[in-house]
Amino acid sequence: MVPLLLVLLLALVLFGAGFAVKVLWWIALAVLVLWLLGFVARGTSASGGRGRWYRW
Q1: Contacts from 27-34 at CB under 8 Å and sequence distance 24+?
Q2: Measured between alpha carbons, how far is residue 11 from residues 26, 51, 54 in Å?
Q3: pLDDT in tens, 25-46
């Protein structure tokens, strides 16, 4: 009975980790798309050059 419970617990942990990793990949993809959109749509500065779109 104990080995069966351990296998079920391991399957549950691996399923949870797999779901979390998949969610993190989607979040990373969304951030990448936002970064690329910001990079493409950055404004021009007063001197006519293209300035940075972030404030770091």
Answers
A1: none
A2: 23, 50, 43
A3: 899 999 999 888 877 776 555 5
Using only C-alpha atoms, the chain has a radius of gyration, in whole angstroms, of 22
Secondary structure, 3-state, 8-37: HHHHHHHHHHHHHHHHHHHHHHHHHHHHHH
Report the 10 Å Cβ neighbour count for 23: 10
Separation between Cα atoms, residue 45 and residue 56, nearest integer Å: 16
Could you tell me the pTM of the whole model? 0.54
Query: Between the CA of residue 53 and those of 12, 33, 44, 45, 56, what are the distances in Å?
Result: 43, 15, 9, 10, 9
Cα–Cα distance, 52 to 11 (Å, whole number): 47
